[in-house]
Amino acid sequence: MFETVRYEAKRRLPAATVISLALSAFAAMVLLIAPGIIGEVDVDALLENVPPALVESMGLEHMGTIEGFLALELYQFVWVLGLGAYVAYSTAGTIAGDVEDGRMDTLLAAPVSRRRLLLETYLALLTPAVVVNVVVFTVVAAGTAVIGESVALADLAAVHALSLPYFMLCGAAGMLASVAAPRRLIAEGVAAGAVVGTFLLQSLTTGTSAEWVGSVAPMRYYDPLTVLTASEYDLTGAGLLLAVTAALLLVAVRVFEERDVQ
Amino acid sequence: MSGETDATGRERTSRPPATGAGATWDVARYEGRNRVPVTVVLAVLFSLFGAFYVWLGPELVAGDQMQELLDQLPPAMVELFGFQSLESLGGLLASEFYTLGWIVGFGGYVAYSAAGTVAGDLRDEQMDLLLAGPVARRSVLLGKYFALLVPILVVSVVVPAVLYAASVAVGDPLSLADLAVLHALSVPYLLLWAAVGLVLGVAVRGGRTAGRLALGLVFAGWIVESVIATTDYAWVGAVSPTRYFDPPAVLVDGSYDIAGATLLLAVAAALVGAGLRWFERSDL
Q: What's the CA gap between B220 and B216, in Å, rounded?
């Protein structure tokens, strides 16, 4: 049972460790400089001149807080953009890579169905996402205590928990690219490019008449800023992400089952 | 490897390997041709994205209130996106399109593929074949490096042309001179990341690891520099190449950091030199 998960997960552990360490160091750095920067700005005075509607819609009243700072500096870019692209990229490399290296023949010669192989490989890919989430959550929680700022632990936990459906979607998209693309390099490029592309699309169209275009972006349904500053958890969005994840995986399984593997 | 290749390889190496510009040029031409499809894809994608920005620009730059707000935001947040100005189309482009698209996106691509082109050939044992030919190692590595100029130069010419055309079409023309300077200054920045990728490719043999490391460095170079740029620790950011290539300064203020670009070129040349030495001495 689940030999593939175990094997693939073990292979991902070094990468997961390196990423956890790097992101923990970055989180520590952000926390270190946060108090100085937040102290510089008088948010209330600054928001007096801004229309209340704008303040509300963008959650601006929380901009100068430690929560807002963390959300913008750490989660918005590193989590949503960086880690999301990494998950998509590394999932895309799995099946396409095994096919390219000629390992897939050997794997499929074993008594395991393609569906099972794909789903187990996918599950294993979530290891880095889970490890990194747990480690960085701990570091940020401890770090805020050390610098004497208080962040609601529930919100912090929610930011990390709600990021999992987002990463699962990125992984599922990578998986589809992996089975559909003719070569590994193309699968990886398409998967990572899709995450970066939709990220740009969604940040560009927010607040404009073309806002509907951005609703194809998965980032629309996971917003660390509102979770941390307003304690609003977008559960519908998370549900939607999970549903699309399941749909993408189904399509990936079908494509993989019907594909010629050389 | 077949016996035939082995035989020809031995026969060829018995002659002195070709060095110099000719061989480098041959490798560069071959590798450069391989990069043409990706170059086309990148040029089209960046052009579409850029055109989209220009098209939505008027809606985004109109708000004076937004600008007032930006002026007072914590500098670190402003710095992250290079949000110096949202009052003009140039400011908007510099903020997101060039910061994310060029500094992180294109820089990442160049570093990743530079690392992959060396490490990938080493792993696939294509390097044996290449080096069995009458070509000096130095020429192989240099040729691969120069081949990266294909995507760098093509995309740097196509994208500003499209942006300018689009901005004229929406009736808010950008400064052609600033655009040209911006892209000219981006070439040293990209060449530096290509050099970093090359060295990593030679140093880290494990195929994809080199590329991932290179990509991680580009991302870290951007985000660390922007987070600490406005703090007391700003001096640490001086090691980041991002410090020496500043799109908002060019597009908004019209100031050109020639010294920074020169520094980037010098470091790039030094890195390529180090990579060459290492590659010539190492056991493949």
A: 6
B21 touches chain A (CB under 8 A): no
Q: Give the burial class of A41: count Cβ atoms within 10 A of its Cβ; 0-12 exposed, 13-18 middle, 19 or more buried.
A: middle
Burial (CB < 10 A; 0-12, 13-18, 19+), residue B71, is exposed
* Model pLDDT for residues A172-192, shown as the tens digit of each residue: 999 999 999 988 889 998 999
Per the structure, how many domains does chain B have? Answer: 1
What is the interface size between A and B, counted as CB pairs within 8 Å? Answer: 83
The whole domain housing B72 covers: 42-125+146-281
Of the partner residues A38, A46, A82, the one whose CB lies closest to the CB of residue B219 = A82
Q: How confident is the model at residue A33 (pLDDT cuts 50, 70, 90)?
A: confident
- Residue B44 makes CB contacts below 8 A (sequence gap 6+) with none
Q: Does B37 touch chain A (CB under 8 A)?
A: no
Per residue in A65-98, pLDDT (tens digit) is: 788 878 877 888 888 988 999 999 999 998 998 8
Instruction: Kindly state the percentage of chain B with pLDDT values over 90.
Output: 29
Q: What is the pTM of this model?
A: 0.80
> Are B105 and A46 a contacting pair at CB < 8 A?
no
Q: What is the pLDDT of residues A5-32, one digit of tens each?
A: 888 888 888 889 999 999 999 899 888 8
Does residue B136 sit within a domain? no
Phi, psi of A236 (to 5 degrees): -60, -45
With contacts defined as CB-CB under 8 Å, which chain A residues touch B68? 49-50
Residue B90 contacts residue B82 (beta carbons within 8 Å): no
ipTM: 0.71
Mutate to test the interface with B, among A37, A55, A78, A229 (most CBs of B within 10 A): A37
What are the residue boundaries of the structural domains of chain A, listed by start? 3-258
